[in-house]
């Protein structure tokens, strides 16, 4: 992806740092299909939680689970990009380990999110049927 911003020096102020952080978020959403799925699932869960009028502690668990998934996907994308930069897409065993382990971190976070979602939303939803 061609970027207009070719800065390689340190950021000069907080506003510039924030601008690059937001650009990173936009980039990961544009580049990573899995991130778009995570965001869609997160919005769905937040919508259901709002509809069910969850308690504050329920929200804390749900938001923790959501942010863990999003954070691990961000870290996974960092690993993928650094590995691609270093290997220039040639097969390297350490590259495979790094990418697979980073993907495992996302899997762990997603598993945690599913458990939290079932524990918190499950009883509410069961009552409706
Ligand atoms: N340079 C490499 N050397 C060895 N194996 C690699 C290399 N690049 C990728 N792989 C293997 O291919 C898999 C897919 O790599 P790829 O970079 O396409 O990830 P991805 O499809 O973007 O991952 P995700 O599904 O998390 O978005 C990795 O999990 C790894 O097992």
From TrEMBL:
Source species, domain of life: Bacteria
Lipid bilayer topology: Multi-pass membrane protein
A GO molecular-function descriptor: kinase activity
EC number(s) stated in the UniProt entry for this protein: 2.7.1.-
Pfam families the UniProt entry points to: DAGK_prokar
Transmembrane portions of the chain: 37-53, 100-121
Organism whose genome encodes this protein: Loigolactobacillus binensis
Claim: Nucleotide-binding is one of the keywords in the record: yes
Protein name: Diacylglycerol kinase family protein
Principal place of residence: membrane
